[in-house]
Amino acid sequence: MVKSPDKGHKPDWEAFVQCLKRAGTPRRVHFIEIYLDEEVKQALCARYDLLDGLDAADPYFLEKREIRIQRFLGYDYVLAGLENFSLSLRWMRAEDVAELKRASGRLYIDEHTGPITNWQEFEAYPWPDPQQASVRALEWYERNLPDDMCVLGGLTGHFA
Length: 160
Fold this sequence. Notes:
29% helix; globular
């Protein structure tokens, strides 16, 4: 295990949003990553001791872990969206050649054909039930996210 370096970085969500709006010249580069694989998160936490003091049995362990990971990597935000509300996509499987391999291979969204290409597929599509959607994580972040960070909403589903 390697101790987490003190990079002197402090998140600044307001400057991040201004950068996205192209409102002036930012004072620093704001990093953004839409998705980190779970095995990468686990490796980061293990290598840099990011889980010190966190209880894996805590119902908000994943949210607390996410804050630590994102801050450590220099991001100004965490990702959150609706839970129990996802859109079915068409997936393609490929051999995993990454260093942190998944035995079952990697899944990629089929970007050649979307999940709905005609009215019959539209009618047969397994639409999620909005009544089953949960905002549990969003509500927790509203109460607990550090003031210098924000939430980027998303990853609840999209069509390629």
